[in-house]
Amino acid sequence: MAKIVAGIAASHVPAIGAALDNGKANEPYWQPLFRGFEPSKKWIAELNPDVMILVYNDHASAFSLEIIPTFAIGCAASFAPADEGWGARPVPVVVGHPKLASHIAQSTILDEFDLTIVNKMDVDHGLTVPLSLMYGQPTAWPCPIIPLAVNVVQYPPPTGHRCYMLGKAIRRAVESYPEPLRVAIFGTGGMSHQISGQRAGLINSAFDNAFLDKLSKDPEAAMRIPHIEYVREAGAESIELVMWLIMRGAMDEGAKEIYRFYHVPASNTAVGHIIFENAA
Amino acid sequence: MTQAAFEDIPGTLLFDAERSRKGYHLNMFCMSLMKPENRDAFRADEKTYLKQFPMTEEQVQALLDRDWNKMLELGGNIYFTSKLGACDGLSFQQLAAKMTGSTQQEYADMMLHGGRSVEGNRSKSEWAKRG
């Protein structure tokens, strides 16, 4: 039986990818950020999961306004890094896990979560930047990755409650998979940021830290935060935090927080990062 | 929760179905810039390139003027309009500076000092008071 062993969350700012790709990681602006992920890189190298489910949002790269799936699971054998308007990031192709991905799709759909199945999809910074933060610059990503894209472009995104419950359904799906895989689940995006309009640059560290506390100790309180509260308190794009709740829902309610890091700014954004482990 | 509550947040436009309908062709134009050959064609003759997309005159003008806030008012979405920004060589931060009416240096300094505070930035009435 497969098992979810760990949950990770991290922001996915495009400028972080650009800093790494352009050799700027040691500059004073970026160094404190990358230093904050050093313990995480050691941790994941030791954990060495067999598969990672990576929850992210597509930023009008694979999906335009033609098709807007609320939840879309990548079941392909591989996913190419997207050209987001400045050329594709020089990162490895993402190798999928079609068998487990299709099993999750089938299981969650029968569990009444109607995921969209995607067999061809380029993946943008939303997916590749978190991988870079955890794994640095390898020639190949160390494990197969199952992309799970969530709509946060056109209102409404799914509610926090729905995301949390989907996390639980994903866990049931993983635990009904016959091979003994050790699976990690990664929620990405956030934390406070607004990149559009006259209020751009909004950062609310108090909100972010309270969110991290809730996510850790009282995930159901985090689940009940309404959309309006994210947008008003932590900026229009902080709504991405609902994706962290998919990760959290897939973990034990009492999952152990083993690492946390928070840093402002990365470009327009507050970068948050947290790691949980399930009881063995 | 009604969408009216979102409309009270100052300097923030919720990209809902109505804005999405209004901005469909503007956003799809931006999407087309993900292909290098389209970026080249657009750069070579912006007005001609834009004719492929059935937009309003106002939308075309906002694009030609690089009036980033106007684009959002006319149904543009930041994840799409940022592709025009990328085509122009602008980062998200440079784009954000323009939308807030700051120089890039002022904006970068604000971010380095913890960003824009939420205090005084929650409601349109707060912005009206400060004039």
Looking at this protein, list some descriptive labels:
heterodimer, A: 280 residues, alpha/beta, Protocatechuate 4,5-dioxygenase, Chain B, two-stranded antiparallel ribbon, B: 131 residues, mainly alpha, Protocatechuate 4,5-dioxygenase, Chain A, 2 domains, globular
Coarse shape of chain B: globular
Count of domains of chain B: 2
**Average pLDDT figure of chain A:** 97
Structural class by SSE content of chain A: alpha/beta
Largest sheet of chain A, if any? 8 strands, mixed
Coarse structural class of chain B: mainly alpha
In DSSP terms (H or I, runs of 4 or more residues), the helix count of chain A works out at 10
Low-confidence stretches of chain B: none
- Give the total of beta strands of chain B: 0
- Number of helices, counting only DSSP H or I runs of 4 residues or more of chain B: 11
Tell me about this structure.
The complex is a heterodimer of chains A (280) and B (131). By secondary structure, chain A is of the alpha/beta class. Chain A is built from ten helices and ten strands. Chain A has helices spanning 14-21, 31-36, 38-47, 98-110, 125-135, 160-175, 205-217, 219-223, 227-234, 242-250; strands spanning 3-10, 51-56, 71-74, 78-79, 94-95, 116-118, 145-150, 182-188, 256-266, 269-277. In chain A, the strands form two sheets. Chain A has an eight-stranded mixed β-sheet, with helices on both faces. In chain A, strands 4-5 form a two-stranded antiparallel sheet. In chain A, strand 9 and strand 10 (269-277) form a beta hairpin. Chain B folds into two domains: 15-88, Protocatechuate 4,5-dioxygenase, Chain A; 100-131, no CATH class. Chain B is 63% helix and 0% strand. Chain B contains eleven helices and no strands. Chain B has helices spanning 3-7, 17-22, 24-32, 36-44, 46-50, 57-64, 68-73, 78-87, 92-99, 104-112, 124-130. The chains are: A alpha/beta (280), B mainly alpha (131). The interface between A and B is large, with 47 and 55 residues.
